[in-house]
Amino acid sequence: MDNLRLYFCTYNVGTSSPEQDLKELLSISEKKNENRPDLFVIGFQEVKAQPQNMLMDTLFDDPWTFACKELLQHDYIKLKSLRLQGLLLLVFSLRKHILNIREIDSEYTRTGLAGMWGNKGAVSIRLSINGCSLCFVNAHLSAHDDHLKDRIDDYNSIIQDQEFHVEETSKIFYHDYVFWLGDLNFRLLEEYDKTPEEIERQIIKKDTKSLFEHDQLRSVMKKGEAFSELTEQDPDFPPTFKFTVGTPCYDFKRRPAWCDRILYRVNSNNYENVTLKVDQLSYKSHPSYVLSDHKPVTAEFIIKIPQPILKLQGLSLPPVDQVFSDYSESVIEFENIAGWEEEGENKAYYRRTKDIRETAEDWIGLFKENFCALDEYVTYEYISKCATPTDESTGSGKKSQDSRKYEVVFPDLPNRCRGNYCLVYFSQTEDKVTSVLGISNVFPIVKHDSD
């Protein structure tokens, strides 16, 4: 089994902009760190969501996505981002994993105003890596001390409502690993008859352990009313809400509470002869961030995933009980591209290393060298329109479907499309479940030489 390191962050930003450096929040150091996370999963709540902001965010990255991408772009690629009004979920992967990640899908649930408004609810992203399925949920549940039942109802609505388009993992808890983060808004039990000032004195004394015994979330988990499918490490940090914006001081308009949480679930025995496992490395808040009335919370985990099958000559395969399937890295292999010209028609060639089911939605995108997000294509063409089998054949005159050579034609490129680029092959279903199946070499696009 291989280890995969996952870093999670949840932050209710209270409609603020990322005016503080996010390096500490994402534990990014200037020193070379061999223990870099394989995946970053970042959940924001209350991202500014006025109509004009939503319109701009459809055209450009919102400020929080841009700030995270700017910090991670050298080593990571943004696999997916999902926005529901103020809710935002980002998933980044180390570049080296791109061809091992499959079936990226997303879902969302509105729970505000009886399901009609997206100011509360959840956004989720699921994916598979080496055949192992992961689901990430970012939720913002009903607020206020006395709305405990609403939070319970929100949770149960989310797990019942969300339906992914990958058959074996259509529900959240069908996945091998589930991580649930967000502003869950659970407060201290109402019967805990203490004022905000009294609770703060308890926090100053560092008596958070006895205070946590009155946590609403842990109470409903024990009763089986909500979140009982998940596990949470006891937080040893102070309550993360409510603070006076711009200060480290609690705002006594509300009783302090652990609103911001990160929980997980592992289905350890989903497979014969393979035991899945989670080790939690950290769980902490970041009090130096004062942009909103919440403090952000982060957690780091190591999970066990199967090893990829190595197909290179001379390398032995891992034992059969350590892999889930015949999982090859590159399903689409591009022939070397020497270069393209800015004007006129350009061509490329690829072969399939496995027999895959092509859909009308499959496409090839042209990306700049060192692109940092899967949605950053410069232009694209659908396979059904741009790719045709060549006349190449084996000695017998026949060629299997999965080894046939295909010619790709890009009839036009955008103006001023110069520099270094690559092609990326995307498999995509009608329901927009996306996998990256191949990436070409980096090649130059140059101005057409009229001479």
From TrEMBL:
Transmembrane segments: none annotated. Signal peptide: none annotated. One of its GO terms (biological process) is phosphatidylinositol dephosphorylation. It holds the Pfam family Exo_endo_phos2. InterPro entries: Endo/exonu/phosph_ase_sf, IP5, IPPc, SKICH. GO terms for cellular component: cytoplasm; plasma membrane; ruffle. GO terms for molecular function: phosphatidylinositol-4,5-bisphosphate 5-phosphatase activity. Residues 2-309 form the Inositol polyphosphate-related phosphatase domain. It comes from the Eukaryota. PANTHER family: INOSITOL 5-PHOSPHATASE (PTHR11200), LD06095P (PTHR11200:SF275). Belongs to the inositol 1,4,5-trisphosphate 5-phosphatase type II family. This is Inositol polyphosphate-related phosphatase domain-containing protein. It comes from Phyllotreta striolata (Striped flea beetle). The lineage of its organism: Eukaryota, Metazoa, Ecdysozoa, Arthropoda, Hexapoda.
